[in-house]
């Protein structure tokens, strides 16, 4: 467990790579092909404004990444807020130099840059163009565009790993119940070949990653900071295990700080890169519920695990289910797969109580059975009168019930066979 | 706790009043006015076929209760199943004699008969004409018509008591969680002047009645047997308390046995007599979920309290929420009142986390705040570059943050004010 304060050495002038680049820009990027130039420009654009900026994304669509960068450097940002941000960043460093340095650092780290030009680019993130968060006035919620590029660490293809994936997110201050359910869900889904995607936080996120790892499955942690400074540090060993067998992913250049607004920006990638998102425990206001809002906004299945109404850590989960008709209550891996599985794939069985012979009976047989005394013997005419059927019907049904082992003949009448059954009383 | 077997003495020839009437019918009913005749006929019809029988109800609509009874006695039942039932019962006793005897027994018991002709008849039960249970092939599910009459014990007007009422039902084998939540919900609703209606069973039903009684509120127990033999016997003391301060209600004549199919027939009255039904805990197949099906089928609010997905006693509750889009998740009395309250009445407040000053900040202020080091001091230019705003904007926002007590000026720069806050990490 490492609180953020303990890592603050990394934020100081000496240790912070973002800061280092600002003060010591390298002279110029290395010679580059057109593709390399596109990649460098994407990194530079992600640094010059926060990832997901809608204006920047539109510029890239119109002019390409290199053209968009040139335009922004020349003061051509289409809106004042973006212009201010760009000016502030340009005053600190040359964005292409920052990008080139980031490439080098990633290389040393064993990480790679993935862009839409790469085979392993996860196409579903393009659905973020549909992400409109009408409810929120905060600036970070305008950072909703698809990513321009992703840093990846780990040996698998990003696209293939995410092809059959489910996001599993929830509270940091999870309860034992939440940890248990989160771990079991992740284990069950990973066991069936599904990748578990989460954010690497304490609590449910970590439980989700661990559940998948325990099942020997794939798990992906999408970070809100550079891949070389995974946050929280208390999960450092977990991140190493994930990098070894799964993938670490981030939109931010190596060395980037886990600033608060970045978690919300990151959450849209978790929602968009997966086939659906599952929430396990969330307090009334939480980042995890924001991930669910993003999933709902791009029409991905948004699944919620309920909990005790006496638990504050389930308040956010229940509120989601109350507010959003599209949010789906789930209680098991099978029910999650019912939402995200391919057509004809794994479907959840309808939950049924233990099948009892008496549940299979026709109505008259039930009435006849109920007319028998709890103890002792009753005559056929008496049984017929009590059950409201004709005597011959009663006899026929009693024969059937005898065959099923529910009653037995005794002298002139019938008796219930042991064990006696409780009536259904409510 | 009394198992059904222990009360079986009451089922024997000596102790069972239904049986006694069959063997010793009184000679004839007392002289009666037209209204008395209607009342006696309704009781007789409820005995000659189970309450809620659709065919019988239609006959009463067409011919009146007296006419319907005459028709049935003359073999004029419109369908074979009903004809058999009537024939079997007629062979046992004179239905009018049974009815007269029932009136006398009720009188001795301090109970009264309530029919649609009475001021205290609860009009909403008429909505049962809409009750169609398409899914169920069982005969008991054809017993879905409105009641012909109701036996009532207790000092309040039935209609007034049910005017602002909520049904609260659930598992007999409830967990500590369910008992706690059921009691608290009932207490909270009763405290706000709402009547709690339930079925008197062990578990959630009893918790609901007790919660209302503890709040000094009204509670109504709708039984599936005669009012003189409340079932289960283990709740006998509870039933006496309910009769003293609230109401005991049944469709069945005094002495009637709590036969299994009667619980499902009874459940439709609980659903229809109230403004909405709340389910707290139910196993995969349970009578309580059947009550909810009935509430849904007549468009009454059907509310469900979720629970831990690790609990088998919440499986039925979660299945209801999954299967019925109209079923509503509730977690508090206020949320129940939101569903059943009169327009403009008690509405549930939106659940929110603790309001924090930093949640109120505009976007730029948030970015500036995040650019401050966790420990130590940082210069304004540095803060501006990191937060992506112009230096003059940073200065303006830092002044605002200082005023809010979030940062403090230190020499040439700014520092975070204690206590340090954790970033939102998921």
Averaging pLDDT over every residue of chain A, what do you get?
Answer: 85
Largest chain interface and its two residue counts?
A-B, 102 and 101 residues
CATH topology category name of the domain at 104-340 in chain A = Rossmann fold
Shape of chain A: elongated
SS content category of chain A: alpha/beta
What share of the residues of chain A does DSSP label as strand, in percent? 5-15%
Distance N to C terminus of chain A: 49 Å
Strand order of the largest sheet of chain A: 1-2-6-5-4-3-7-8-9
- Secondary structure: helix percent of chain A: 40-55%
Spans of at least 5 consecutive residues with low confidence of chain A: 1-27, 343-355, 420-426
Main sheet attributes: strand count, strand direction, barrel closure of chain A:
9 strands, mixed
Question: What CATH architecture label of the domain at 104-340 in chain A applies?
Answer: 3-Layer(aba) Sandwich
